[in-house]
Amino acid sequence: xxxxxxxxxxxxxxxxxxxxxxxxxxxxxxxPVGSTIEECIKLSAINKHFPEITLREAxxxxxxxxxxxxxxxxxxxxxEIYRPLIADPKEMRKLRAAKMGKK
Length: 103
Description:
The protein has 103 residues and is an alpha+beta fold. Helices cover 20% and strands 31% of the residues. The chain has two helices and five strands; from the N terminus they run E-E-H-E-E-E-H. A five-stranded mixed beta sheet has the order 2-1-5-3-4, with helices on one face. The longest helix is centred in the last third of the chain and has 13 residues, at 89-101.
């Protein structure tokens, strides 16, 4: 189904995406108007591809902007589920700067 081709007025088309370095999945689906991010993720059944996703711990967003699970989605939104950071970016910058200073 292409985005925008949903003929029912009570449904909208959205996408749910998640990725690992070696596997990425983008799912397109119709959802009821007024659905939240959490509801859309559950309806997408993306956890069948990535059972390690824990919604209460995961950060989520729409088009690279952090949102809460209770945010209502709009036609064409792309819901993104973000992986946890392996290392604190600020600490990594400090370590790189320290290494550069020792050369």
